[in-house]
């Protein structure tokens, strides 16, 4: 098939490359000329595991290419995926749909009829009718352009695998959708034939799917972090508690990792956006648990700062603190709402000299937090440190021998906020160790 992908950030570039991998001819469209040039060279303008290989493979064959022209995209195919960003509005947790509506307006005039516009962007429930209205207004044959909703459930650093081998496929349509459904089933034929559960539903349910999924995941993470607070107060071990709970098949261990909490460009935004939309629908009382989940998540960052005070005193001026981690999670260079950088910035603002190291995210961190110090080598970053904070759980950090570090630090103290360091090994090497939710 021929298809387009409008918007080529994390979601769109990954979707375009994976659709090419499935055998389709794909044209990606993004208004950022520099991004288009980078993608056409077979590289992504961000780090996502396995993505560069797919981009290089399929741009070389011509099966995948990128453009900055809406007119070219509209003419290219009769199936158009939209994956533009929907960030929070300035001063609000509500979704900003400016990019989505602008993309629809600019794509619509050149659409061939009949056509399907399948939106993947995360939105507040009730957006699909507005997209359909814009298509009727701006497309020459608007009544022949159908709207479908195809939410994504990607995890950054696993986005390629999640696209090619998803755990479910959701297709949302209005009351009549036979032609649009047939087209999307053809697009995802290999995925469906592999046995992927495929749920065909209405617009509203499909719109709710991503926000509800992320809200539930955030609640699960915050629940185990709330238990970490109780464990610290009682002397219990939250890692062992999580294992005990996780063996109950109704609960499960996956996704229930105690530590510094969640961040990134999706989970916090989607939880907050879900709550905001519920308030607009006069259903705010139903999402009180989500408000508390967000509050628990925020407390984890403050808890690390409190522990730093416990180890270094109330006055952090002149103290040297090393932070292992800048990305919001490992295997990505994404620093959006990074818990690690939030803690690092707060400690800097309290007067400490903060040195940050990360395998992939330093360039992005420097742009957003130029007042922090940065060192490429995580071992050298520990030189003269009064305190080491382990804030992003890169595997590389867990393989470093703490004996190599103990004489480099001014004071061998470490706070493991992700719970992935071998604390027994670190203690044997001469380090004072603290870990969230553990004795």
TrEMBL record:
It is an enzyme of class 1 (oxidoreductase). Gene3D superfamilies: Cytochrome c1, transmembrane anchor, C-terminal (1.20.5.100), NAD(P)-binding Rossmann-like Domain (3.40.50.720). NCBIfam families: NDP-sugDHase. Pathway: Nucleotide-sugar biosynthesis; UDP-alpha-D-glucuronate biosynthesis; UDP-alpha-D-glucuronate from UDP-alpha-D-glucose: step 1/1. The keyword Oxidoreductase applies. Residues 322-423 form the UDP-glucose/GDP-mannose dehydrogenase C-terminal domain. Pfam families: UDPG_MGDP_dh, UDPG_MGDP_dh_C, UDPG_MGDP_dh_N. GO terms for molecular function: NAD binding; UDP-glucose 6-dehydrogenase activity. It comes from the Bacteria. InterPro entries: 6-PGluconate_DH-like_C_sf (IPR008927), NAD(P)-bd_dom_sf (IPR036291), UDP-Glc/GDP-Man (IPR017476), UDP-Glc/GDP-Man_DH_C (IPR014027), UDP-Glc/GDP-Man_DH_C_sf (IPR036220), UDP-Glc/GDP-Man_DH_dimer (IPR014026), UDP-Glc/GDP-Man_DH_N (IPR001732), UDPglc_DH_bac (IPR028357). Keywords: NAD, Oxidoreductase. Substrate binds at residues 153-156, 210, 263, 329. GO terms for biological process: polysaccharide biosynthetic process; UDP-glucuronate biosynthetic process. This is UDP-glucose 6-dehydrogenase. Its EC number is 1.1.1.22. NAD(+) binds at residues 30, 35, 86, 122, 156, 269, 336. The active site is at residue 266. Belongs to the UDP-glucose/GDP-mannose dehydrogenase family. It catalyses: UDP-alpha-D-glucose + 2 NAD(+) + H2O = UDP-alpha-D-glucuronate + 2 NADH + 3 H(+).
């Amino acid at each position: 098939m021929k298809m387009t992908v409008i918007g080529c950030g994390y979601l769109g570039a990954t979707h375009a490359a994976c659709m090419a991998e499935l055998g389709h001819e794909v044209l990606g469209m993004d208004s950022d000329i520099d991004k288009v040039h980078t993608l056409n060279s077979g590289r992504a303008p961000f780090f996502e595991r396995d993505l560069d290989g797919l981009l290089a493979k399929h741009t070389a064959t011509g099966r995948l290419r990128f453009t900055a022209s809406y007119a070219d995209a509209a003419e290219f195919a009769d199936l158009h995926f939209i994956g533009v960003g929907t960030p929070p509005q300035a001063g609000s947790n509500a979704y900003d749909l400016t990019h989505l509506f602008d993309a629809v307006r600019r794509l619509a005039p050149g659409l061939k009829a009949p056509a399907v516009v399948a939106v993947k962007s995360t939105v507040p429930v009730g957006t699909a009718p507005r997209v359909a209205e814009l298509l009727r207004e701006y497309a020459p044959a608007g009544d022949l352009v159908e709207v479908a909703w195809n939410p994504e459930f990607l995890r950054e650093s696993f986005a390629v695998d999640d696209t090619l081998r998803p755990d479910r496929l959701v297709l949302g349509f209005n009351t009549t959708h036979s032609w649009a459904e047939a087209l999307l089933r053809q697009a995802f034929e290999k995925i469906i034939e592999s046995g992927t559960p495929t749920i065909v539903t209405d617009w509203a349910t499909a719109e709710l799917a991503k926000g509800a999924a992320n809200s539930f995941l955030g609640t699960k993470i915050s629940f185990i972090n709330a238990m970490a607070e109780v464990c610290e107060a009682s002397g219990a071990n939250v890692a062992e508690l999580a294992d005990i709970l996780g063996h109950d098949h109704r609960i499960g261990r996956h996704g229930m990792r105690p530590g510094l909490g969640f961040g990134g460009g999706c989970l916090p935004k989607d939880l907050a956006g879900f709550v905001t939309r519920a308030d607009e629908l006069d259903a705010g009382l139903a999402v009180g648990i989500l408000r508390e989940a967000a509050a628990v998540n925020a407390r984890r960052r403050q808890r690390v700062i409190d522990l730093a005070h416990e180890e270094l005193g109330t006055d952090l001026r002149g103290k040297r603190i090393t932070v292992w981690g800048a990305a919001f999670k490992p295997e990505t260079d994404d620093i959006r709402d990074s818990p690690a950088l939030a803690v690092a910035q707060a400690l800097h603002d309290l007067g400490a000299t903060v040195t940050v190291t990360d395998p992939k995210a330093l360039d992005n961190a420097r742009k957003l937090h130029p007042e922090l110090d940065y060192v490429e080598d995580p071992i050298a970053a520990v030189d003269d440190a009064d305190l080491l904070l382990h804030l992003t759980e890169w595997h590389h950090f867990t393989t470093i021998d703490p004996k190599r570090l103990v004489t480099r630090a001014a004071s061998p103290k470490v706070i493991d906020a992700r719970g992935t360091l071998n604390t027994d090994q670190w203690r044997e090497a001469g380090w004072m160790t603290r870990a969230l939710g553990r004795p």
